[in-house]
């Protein structure tokens, strides 16, 4: 019987010496608002390893932007990269922006923007003096990604005041590493 109190004392010592259970890094990160639990976004050609943020219901308006006040408060250093491309390449731009966000310290979300910029391209022509020859007039798209240090919520997406210029394509939040 003298062994029973000794055994209880030994078990208590082992229990106190064992490390406290640690929460996983992904749950710590999500509790701090640095990632979301969800699924990657699949586009027609690319998998984006961030979860897409859906705009609030729009009453027919499909053109949104990130709320300018929120954008100003949460933009990260190196907050924009620009690419020139046409409409079919939006998913490629958004796909590439996930890698930029991953490389910017503190970046946990990003939004893609597209704007149409009219352009004139003049080609030199050796024979004709007519300046109109070789002029290409058209529409060129500018694509930008803006990076943020806070997760984007649907309420942070507001109707665009100018649907023709600088409209958000999609917004994305970083996924937690649930491994």
Mind explaining what this structure looks like?
This protein is α+β, with helices and mostly antiparallel strands and 179 residues long. It has one domain. The protein contains 4 helices and 9 strands; from the N terminus they run H-H-E-E-E-E-H-E-H-E-E-E-E. The protein has helices at residues 3-17, 25-31, 68-74, 90-103; strands spanning 41-42, 47-48, 50-53, 64-66, 75-84, 109-122, 135-148, 157-159, 167-174. Strands 3-9-6-7-5 form a 5-stranded antiparallel beta sheet. Strands 1-2 form a two-stranded antiparallel sheet. A two-stranded antiparallel ribbon has the order 4-8. A hairpin with a 4-residue loop joins strand 1 and strand 2 (47-48). The longest helix has 15 residues, at 3-17. It starts with a helix and ends in a 5-residue tail after the last strand. The model is unreliable at 4-27 and 117-138 (pLDDT under 50). Residues 21-32 have a biased composition (Low complexity). Residues 21-42 are annotated as: Disordered.
Beta-strand level of the residues, as a percent range?
25-35%
SSE succession: HHEEEEHEHEEEE
Low-pLDDT residue spans: 4-27, 117-138
Strand count, sense and barrel status of the largest sheet are: 5 strands, antiparallel
SS summary, helix count: 4
Strand order of the largest sheet: 3-9-6-7-5
Q: Total domains, how many? A: 1
Number of distinct beta strands: 9
Tell me the structural class. Answer: alpha+beta
Q: Distance between the terminal alpha carbons, to the nearest Å?
A: 47 Å
Q: Which of globular, elongated, flat, extended, rod-shaped describes the shape?
A: globular
- Overall mean pLDDT stands at 71
* Helicity, as a percent range: 10-25%
Radius of gyration: 26 Å
Keywords: Signal
């Amino acid at each position: 019987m003298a062994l029973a109190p000794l055994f209880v004392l030994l078990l208590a010592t082992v229990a106190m010496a064992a490390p406290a259970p640690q929460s996983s890094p992904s749950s710590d990160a999500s509790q701090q608002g640095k990632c979301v639990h969800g699924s990657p976004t699949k586009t027609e050609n690319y998998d984006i390893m961030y979860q897409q943020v859906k705009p609030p219901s729009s009453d027919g308006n499909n053109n949104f932007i990130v709320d300018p006040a929120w954008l100003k408060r949460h933009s990260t250093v190196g907050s924009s990269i620009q690419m020139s491309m046409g409409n079919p390449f939006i998913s490629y731009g958004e796909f590439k922006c996930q890698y930029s966000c991953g490389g910017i310290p503190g970046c946990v979300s990003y939004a893609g923007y597209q704007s149409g910029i009219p352009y004139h391209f003049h080609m030199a022509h050796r024979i004709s003096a007519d300046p109109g020859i070789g002029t290409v007039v058209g529409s060129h798209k500018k694509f930008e990604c803006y990076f943020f240090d806070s997760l984007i919520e649907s309420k942070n997406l507001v109707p665009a005041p100018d649907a023709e210029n600088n409209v958000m394509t999609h917004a994305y939040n970083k996924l937690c590493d649930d491994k």
